[in-house]
From TrEMBL:
Protein name: tRNA (guanine-N(7)-)-methyltransferase
InterPro entries assigned: SAM-dependent_MTases_sf, tRNA_(Gua-N-7)_MeTrfase_Trmb, tRNA_methyltr_TrmB_bact
Enzyme class: transferase
Upper classification of the organism: Bacteria, Bacillati, Bacillota, Bacilli, Lactobacillales
Native organism: Leuconostoc litchii
Entry GO CC: tRNA methyltransferase complex
Assigned keywords, A-Z: Methyltransferase, S-adenosyl-L-methionine, Transferase, tRNA processing
Length: 219
């Protein structure tokens, strides 16, 4: 969903360039992301952070991990980063990228990211838009380029078609990925929901009684 632009967003991002890295700076940061955090720790990346509830919740719950939220919409990334900053200031283990998630290998080198999260991505339901889905083969290739061997992608959606498409995509793509850990109703599974951090969309769909689908895939 495209958010209505906020007149304050651009200025706020410019004033807080220490926590929000724009696309040009992000490409120059390749291989050096640990330098932006207080401690050298595993890096987890969320592609499509929206208003940032998930990535902030993860950073607060897991101080032993460094988190990066990536978002292409200026308004969304500004809302996410400002929400974080207003609540807790500059977290030592949380940064943001204001940039396009298509081609993450232009921002990170092999093994620099330990895990990737895809939460409630746009399903792009029309066949002609298949290549825009974040579990399309070209995206999986990009994820392989930045994850270590056996690196993991964690995927959540409310869209049954996108879930089924993603399962097939993980399994079929080069026969390299496995997606054996999945659920058709996350919040009905006491084991898999343990430690789950909800996104804004997740709460919205749960309130409507819709099941949340989840996949953990690795290669």
């Amino acid at each position: 969903m495209h958010l209505r632009s906020k007149p304050w967003a651009g200025d706020w991002l410019a004033e807080h360039s220490n926590i929000v890295i724009d696309q040009d700076r992000a490409t120059a940061q390749i291989g050096q992301w640990q330098s932006l955090f207080d401690q050298k720790q595993p890096i987890h990346l969320e592609i499509g952070s929206g208003k940032g509830q998930f990535i902030l919740g993860m950073a607060l719950a897991h101080p032993e991990i460094n988190y990066i939220g990536m978002e292409i919409q200026e308004t969304a990334i500004a809302i996410a980063a400002r929400k974080s900053f207003d609540q807790v200031g500059t977290l030592p283990n949380l940064r943001y990228i204001y940039g396009n998630g298509n081609g993450v290998e232009t921002y990170f080198e092999k093994g620099e990211v330990d895990k990737i999260y895809l939460n409630f991505s746009d399903p792009w339901p029309k066949k002609r838009h298949e290549s825009r889905r974040l579990t399309y083969k070209s995206f999986l290739n990009s994820y392989e380029a930045v994850l270590p061997e056996h690196g993991e992608v964690e995927f959540k959606t409310d869209n049954r078609h996108l879930f089924e498409y993603s399962m097939v995509s993980f399994i079929d793509y080069g026969m390299r990925w496995t997606a054996e850990d999945y659920t058709l109703d996350l919040h009905a599974d006491e084991e898999k929901v343990l430690g789950n951090i909800e996104t804004e969309y997740e709460q919205k769909f749960m309130a409507k009684g819709q099941p949340i689908y989840k996949i953990k895939a690795h290669f």
